[in-house]
Amino acid sequence: MNLSHIIDGHPDDAPALISRGRVTTYGALRQQVGSMRGALTRNGVGKGDVVALLCGNSRYFVVSYLAAIGVGAIVSPLNPTSPAPEIEGELHVVKPTVVVVEPSAVATWLQIPSETRNAVRIVVATEGHDIAGAITIDECLQGETAPIIDVEATHPAVYMFTSGTAGSPKAAILTHNNLLTNIHQANVAEHLVADDVTFGILPLFHIFGLNVVLGTTLASGGSVVLVQRFDPVATMETIADRGITVMPGSPNMWMALAQMDHATPHGFAGVRLALSGAAKLPEQISHSMSARFGLQIQEGYGLTEAAPVVTTSIGMTWTPGSIGRPVPGIELRIVDENGDDVLLGDSGEIWIRGENIFAGYLNDPEATARVLTRDGWLRTGDIAVVDEDGHLYMVDRVKDLIIVSGFNVFPAEVEGVLSAHPDVAEVTVVGTPHPHTGEAVRAYIVTRNGVHLDEDAIIDYCRTKLARYKCPSKILFVDTLPRNISGKVQRFALK
Q1: I want to staple 222 with a disulfide (CB 3.0 to 4.6 A). Which of 32, 196, 301, 356 is the partner?
Q2: 169 & 282 share domain
Q3: Which one, of 277, 220, 270, 196, lies nearest residue 18 by Cα?
Q4: Tens of pLDDT along 60-102?
């Protein structure tokens, strides 16, 4: 077994990647990946070594990723835009033998203390660079090829850092079998085919981009248009120029497209599958995209530790707000605080089990034990409810729960009410300490088109729709909400 076999068997002349206007066919991709395997092998990189990627969405990321796992190494994709201290901390966790650095990350790489950089035996620069002692990827791609080696199903393929929404990212161990299983699970639902062209805006150093966008598309023989930065106008041009048929995105992408003034339904006519993940998509955005452009966005649910897809609404009657049903091969339970199944219609924590579930957190058995039960159930920390048709609806995260005078307040419920206000563009709700009630509800609001809103009026609006203890006691109006690269609001940055 080896995950890198996903590019085998497709026609040599079929397009695999489109990056910076350059088309790389499957034949060329296999050749480049084979040469990169050869370079890694000649430099003594093999089974169990770690290859860290400081790269954005590019051909070089894909070639390095597939080559490294092909020789049995473990890939750790890192965000090249992260500050140097964050990258340094991640390097200390995974201890790479090789680091691949793209031009935009060179300055940050050189800011990392020399002691940490010198612990890396091989540095590969993707293009022109100022890194002393580095080799170029072009040198790597000009040598002899090396074969793919077989590894055990349980052999780690990726050390993927979680999104760090609690401020303390951990490296999740994802095996070859975890990733291959989830590629199959996702494609059973998505039915990607060789003619599909996938919009690759989601970052490849995030599990959604790596295994859903890239992995699933390459396994099906389709092509991925790799995009470095999101721009609504450029996106519409790419859809037209490249014949995009599959559009995975995050909520902030869909929000921006929904607000475009000059876009027309014709611009999305070729898109057969629109997906949203990584965070909850506001229902008004779903309705807006459907009403304006005839595009029904399918939501799902996943997390890094599940490689990532858990549920999907593909194949269901379109129901904005629902995250669908579990994909094949996943057992799912909704449980209470005692681990007992809740009654139909009651909310509880999502527990899941299947071959896609990760092997644990790297060098952190305590954190692993907190989320993995002895019989293989993953405690997700996410709260959901199931209706009588088996459709799941996300409520909130356990750790985001606000307790006001002993009463539970789910931020998502309050956010849903505020999002329905015609002058509210975005909102996030957090809990803040309160001397009398334990916690109080605080809302951060971005208004539409800079409209001025009165704090007291908004609080009164909430009181017409929510129990008094659920209503914000304080509202702050902000220009933007802090988000991580996957589009999730970083609540901890607001507390």
Answers
A1: 196
A2: yes
A3: 196
A4: 999 999 999 999 999 999 989 888 988 999 999 999 999 999 9
